[in-house]
Design a protein that fits this description.
single chain; 478 residues; mainly alpha; two-stranded antiparallel sheet; 7 strands
């Protein structure tokens, strides 16, 4: 099942046996390359980059590492091997065989789920397309491009599903995925966070930690799907996604490490003394907290409304489960309730919500817990330098634009407050124009010498695939 091959589109789905599908995808391929050259990393398309390429789905040796020019990257279609006699693991059809074709009654909903996931993949490449020009090191530059090419592969994975299982509508959706543009007024990407500018490296690390992690949990939920090709596709995507979150977690950690280490070295005890830290050309910790607040809350919105009849339908029908469904005892979720804090008449009241209607919130809970683990690591790094400062995940009522908290204002602790009071404090909680300008000012000069690291970030502990940190991961003539 899992094999390398020399076809125009590498795959493990026997694409060569289905000439119609193969032709359709081969017709989409040049449009994809055109999109990549226009909207992919700007200024590096001819460079040799030390990249990982998926070549199979076996756990040992699923990827190949070598220098490649990005437009020549071998974007392929890889599905995890089928599970023998796989059964639906939750919802009304629990125990029945999984679907190898799309049931007519779920066609529209499944297409919508797939298109929504697919749209995030090219969107993030677009958001990050200028970052290479301000990279803190060649190591980081390579990691950025690794994330970018793999988001491109995830688009391929979703387009394969659209072409194979959704006929003409699927092909039209696949074209539209190359036509929308992140942040575009007329043709924006579907989800909010994927239209936000991500134009500095602190945002990039926060994005790959918080926003790619939303992706991880969506993929975990979809890998439970009764639609088996979707389950198999997303299972393999998760393998690649782990590296994206590594980039985010270690990226933020290295900024914390550098700032706290230099504060200690210069005898700056008070983390609130932003000016002293900025004089050293570092990202002060209160600004880190603001960037965290922004990207965390934008990412919380991606899980959708807290109380959602769509989520209930997805669960009931078997289209989308919970992350690690096997860890739950009750796979029907027909009787349980979820105790939810709901804003009512200016106050927060506890309400019991039918469990199926709370599935978005259940997934968000798992996400929040996973985020906290990373934040704890950052805090241990700061504490190790003897600096008294703790990064915190804000309340999930803070700065929300989707769901039951979209129309209320709350502070980072979750206390409700008036819109005026929120606006007055906003710059203390979220990156202000001055904060953004300061962070950008640290990153005006890219570092293209493999021996160098920008001043505002610590070097990583180790390089990629056994190579040293100062390896020439990108051969770029400045
Ligand atoms: Fe992805
Ligand atoms: Fe990702």
């Amino acid at each position: 099942m899992s094999s390398v091959n020399n076809e125009r589109i590498p795959n493990n789905v026997h694409l060569g046996d289905d000439k119609r599908l193969q032709r359709a995808l081969e017709a989409w391929q040049p449009n994809y390359i055109k999109w990549w050259t226009e909207m992919g990393p700007e200024g590096f398309q001819q460079d040799d980059v030390f990249l990982r390429t998926a070549i199979s789905v076996t756990s040992e040796g699923w990827a190949n590492f070598d220098y490649v020019k990005m437009p020549e990257y071998r974007w392929g279609i890889f599905l995890a091997d089928p599970v023998q006699d796989r059964r639906i693991g939750f919802g009304d059809h629990m125990g029945q065989p999984v679907w190898q074709e799309v049931p007519g009654e779920h066609r529209n909903a499944l297409r919508r789920i797939i298109v929504t996931q697919a749209d995030t993949e090219p969107a993030s490449v677009e958001q990050q397309r200028l970052l290479g020009q301000t990279c803190p090191s060649v190591y980081d530059l390579r990691n950025l491009f690794q994330v970018n090419v793999e988001e491109g592969r995830h688009l391929w994975a979703m387009v394969y599903l659209l072409h194979s299982y959704f006929g003409r509508d699927g092909r039209e959706e696949a074209e539209a995925l190359l036509e929308r543009r992140s942040g575009d007024q007329d043709k924006p990407r579907i989800l909010g966070a994927f239209n936000e500018p991500c134009t500095d490296w602190l945002s990039f690390f926060m994005f790959t930690f918080f926003t790619d992690r939303d992706g991880k949990f969506q993929l975990l939920a979809l890998s439970e799907s009764a639609f088996d090709p979707l389950s198999r596709t997303t299972r393999f995507m998760l393998t690649e996604e782990a590296h994206h979150m590594f980039v985010g977690e270690t990226g933020v950690l290295r900024v914390c490490d550098r700032t706290a280490g230099q504060m200690a070295a210069h005898g700056i005890k008070d983390a609130a003394d932003v000016d002293a830290v900025r004089k050293l050309g570092l990202v002060d910790l209160p600004t880190m907290q603001k960037y965290l607040n922004l990207w965390y809350t934008l990412s919380l919105d991606l899980f959708g409304g807290e109380i959602s009849s769509n989520a209930a339908t997805y669960f009931a029908t078997g289209m989308k489960g919970r992350a690690k469904e096997e860890q739950f005892e009750d796979h029907l979720a027909l009787t349980g309730t979820y105790a939810m804090d709901v804003p009512k008449d200016g106050a927060i009241v506890r309400e019991d919500v039918a469990m199926r209607n709370a599935m978005n919130e259940v997934l968000r809970d798992a996400y929040v817990e996973d985020c906290q683990r990373g934040v704890d690591k950052w805090n241990r790094t700061i504490a190790a330098h003897g600096i008294d400062f703790t990064l915190k995940l804000p309340s999930r009522r803070f700065h929300r634009h989707i769901g039951i908290y979209a129309n209320v204002c709350a502070d980072p602790e979750g206390n409700l407050l008036s819109k005026d009071a929120f606006e007055a404090k906003k710059d203390a909680w979220l990156p202000s124009a001055a904060d953004k300008a300061y962070v950008q000012s640290l990153m005006t000069k890219p570092v293209y010498d493999p021996k160098q690291m920008a001043n505002w970030i610590a070097a990583p502990k180790q390089g990629i695939k056994g190579r040293p940190v100062d390896f020439e991961y990108v051969r770029h003539e400045a």
